[in-house]
C-alpha cells in the first residue's frame, strides 16, 4: 500500500497528470464561459416568451423549447460526436482540447438554459408585478429584478454546471480531447496504470470539492448580506 | 376638490380557463374624485384585485373604458403605458420588496426606471424616506425589517415618482392591528399632505371606516352599491354590505378582539 501511494505521488505520474489537469481546466473554463453567455441568453428567452411571460411568443417558445429538449435528451457522448464536424469548421481541428470546446458547450448550453429558466421562475411573481406597476420595461425587469433576485440560486446552478462540464470533458477525453479523461482511458484502462488512475481521481475530487465549497460560500454570503438566511 | 378624476365605464373582464369563461367583472361603472380616499370592499373572489389592476393596466379590460384625467388608458402604447404607470403608485399585501436591494435601493428603483439622475435620485429618496419616517433604516435589507416597516418602504417606493394615484391592494391585511392603524394613518397623512388620490381594496370594514370617504361594495363582479361611507354604513342596501356590517357589529361585542382589525 505504501509503495502504491509513493508511486501515485511520484514525479513520473504527475508529469502526466499535471499537463492533463491544465488541459481539463482549460476546456472547462472556456466551455463554461461560452455556456454561461448562451445559457443566460436562452434561459431568459425561454422565460420571457412563455405564455405567462413578459413578452409571450407561444409558438416561438414551443419550437425553441423543443430544440433545447432534443439536445438535452441525447446522451452527451452522441452530441459530442455529432458536433465534431462543426468544431472542425470553427476551430480548424477535430482533436485536442480546443476542438472539443464547441461540442462541450453545445452539450451544456441546454442544461444551463433550463437551470437559468428555473432560477428566474423562482422569483416571486409579486415582485415582477410590482416592477411592472412602477413602469419598468422588460429589460429593467430582467436586469434589475430577475437576475439580481435569483443570483444566489444562479450561482449554485453555475457550480453544478461546472462540475457536470468536468465530467463531460472526461467523455470527450476518450475521443481525443486530451485532459484527465483521456489520461484515465489511455493509462488507467488500456495500460492498467492504476497509479495514474488514482492520481486522476485525487485531482478530480479536489477540484470538484473546491468548486463546490467556493460556490456554496459565495451564495451563502449573498443570502447572509440580504438577511435571507 | 370635486373634480372627476377616474371614470370607469361599463368595464367587464372575462378570464378564460381551459374552455370555460369566467366573468370576473360585469359592467362596472365607477367615478372617483380627485383627492378622494376610495375604498372597495368585497368577499374573496368578488373581483376587487382584478378591478384595481385594470386601473394601472396590469390587467386589460375585456370591454368598457377607463379614463384617468384626459387619458383613456386602454389606448396607450406600450411606452406610454410605462410612463403612465410611473404616475400610479401601488402597494401590496405582501409588500413585494426586492430582497436584493436595500431600503434605499428599493425606493430608488422607480426613479432609476424613470431615468432620473443619481443626484436627483439621492435627493428624492432621502426626502421620501423622511416622509414615511423610516430614514434610519436606509441601508437595511428588507430581510431585516418588520412587516410594518416593509410596508412603509413599499409606500415610499410607490410615492417616489410623485404619482397622482396610489393603489392599495390589501396593504394592511398581513399586519397586526396596531401596525395596520399606523400604516392607515400614514396613508391618510399622505392624502392630506400630497393631495394624492388613494384607491384601496380590502375585506375589512374597519379599514374602510377608518380611512375612506367613499366606497363601493363589490359582489360577484358587480357593484352592489356605492356612495359615501357614512351613507352606506347608515343604510346598507346590498346583501354583502349588510353581512359585513352585521359581522362587524357582532365582532365588536367581543371586547378582546378590539372591534376587529385589518386581519
Task: Briefly say what this structure is.
Chain A is mainly α and 229 residues long. Chain A contains nine helices and no strands. Chain A has helices at 2-8, 11-49, 58-73, 76-91, 96-121, 125-133, 138-177, 179-189, 194-225.
Give the biggest sheet of chain B.
6 strands, mixed
Biggest interface, chains and residues, is: A-B, 22 and 32 residues
For the termini of chain A, the CA-CA separation is 46 Å
H-E order of chain A: HHHHHHHHH
Q: CATH superfamily membership of chain A, which one? A: MetI-like
Helices of chain B, by number, come to 9
Layout of SSEs?
The complex is a heterodimer of chains A (229) and B (263).
Chain A: H1 2-8, H2 11-49, H3 58-73, H4 76-91, H5 96-121, H6 125-133, H7 138-177, H8 179-189, H9 194-225
Chain B: E1 4-17, E2 20-33, E3 37-41, H1 48-55, E4 63-68, E5 71-72, H2 78-85, E6 88-92, H3 103-113, H4 118-131, H5 147-159, E7 165-169, H6 177-194, E8 197-202, H7 205-211, E9 214-219, E10 222-228, H8 229-234, H9 239-253
